[in-house]
Amino acid sequence: MPRIPFHYVDLRTFCYETEDEKRVESALRTFLPEEFELTRTESAGHHGDRIVVLSARVENADDVRHVLARLSELPEFETLLSELDERVTDNTELFLRLDKQAAFRGDVRRGDGITLRAKVEAYPATKDAAVENAREALERADALDSDAES
């Protein structure tokens, strides 16, 4: 089973007062393994409206494999690979925004609504090393989830 060069993957979305929280939770769970625990935090918007922040930190290697395998379903996956230099920070973090509406339908698309932040392992901890590690992991991501199940 291949080594996963990520310390963790954070997924976060907001549920606004006009949205159904169960549907927003369902959208976030599109990227998570079954029965994965979510953190729920209530907040208030600028005008006092209720905002619920739903988030998950994925740290277990098999669970990270699951998230990466879901990312490999992106229709513009090759574009994502070509953008890694812009998407990985000097602090070795990978950032990506995912479409909450598509996720609710079970589809994986880039867009607005869900933020993914992944801490990439890199030794030495440089952006170039992190980009290369992220690229290698993502290039084999489509096979990762099936590796974890076998």
Automatic annotation (TrEMBL):
<dbReference type="InterPro" id="IPR002739">
    <property type="entry name" value="PAB1135-like"/>
</dbReference>
<dbReference type="Pfam" id="PF01877">
    <property type="entry name" value="RNA_binding"/>
</dbReference>
<protein>
    <recommendedName>
        <fullName>RNA-binding protein</fullName>
    </recommendedName>
</protein>
<dbReference type="InterPro" id="IPR022803">
    <property type="entry name" value="Ribosomal_uL5_dom_sf"/>
</dbReference>
